[in-house]
Amino acid sequence: MENKYEIAKDWLPRYTGMAVDDFGDYILLTNFQNYVEEFAERFTADIQGEGRPMSSCTNDAGLSIINFGIGSPNAATIMDLLVARNPKGVLFLGKCGGLKDSSEIGNLILPIAAIRGDGTSNDYFPAEVPALPSFKLHKFVSDKIVEAKTDYRTGVIYTTNRRVWEHDKLFLDKLKKTTAIGIDMEVATIFIVGHYNEIARGALLLVSDVPVTPEGVKTRESDKAVTKKWSDQHLDIGIKAMTDIDKSGEKIKHFRY
Q1: pLDDT for 40-55, tens place per residue?
Q2: What is the CATH number of the domain that holds 191?
Q3: Which terminus of the chain has a lower count of CB atoms within 10 Å, N or C?
Q4: In a domain, 65, yes or no
């Protein structure tokens, strides 16, 4: 295995339990096993790789979903391994913490960019390279959100590699100065590594908590309530967007420099 493609071709099935050729042209990424299970149930499809690091599933229409786990290193890993399949588009369905009064729990956020506080993305591009989604992919996702008669926000997401930061007042002050609309642990990494590997990419985030106040910090019970109320719609929009984009969406081009 002398090059990245050969490594990815061997490792993608090892991590996901699915053969490279069984992945579709369009892929949903998520952190949540229940999204994979719901996807499999909707389409009467088998889940692959249970017990492995990244479970996956592909439906008859050729759309795949992968639960890659949590955090920027895992996000970079799956975006690197997907070079073996060279998908036409990848959409991340994740949750985030809202950092604005306008970011209420249950809102959808379609990020226009992400601040690279993850650290992992520094291994791919210099710090001055912005973490951006593929515009045409996001434009199509936006259309599907409107078709679902659902409101959404746009703005910049702060991606961090930290966990359990909610008590840190200095970090909270830093977040306020960034003017970011939300905070997560993967978006900037997915955008940067997707850019590096020439994979069209996007993210649709569900606001699961508002951690700028002690009473707004996510708990096990509050997260369960958010999942019960909004996860079906979140997944549904992702499925419709990445299914229909191949039929009616504009062709996504990645230019080399």
Answers
A1: 999 999 999 989 999 9
A2: 3.40.50.1580
A3: C
A4: yes
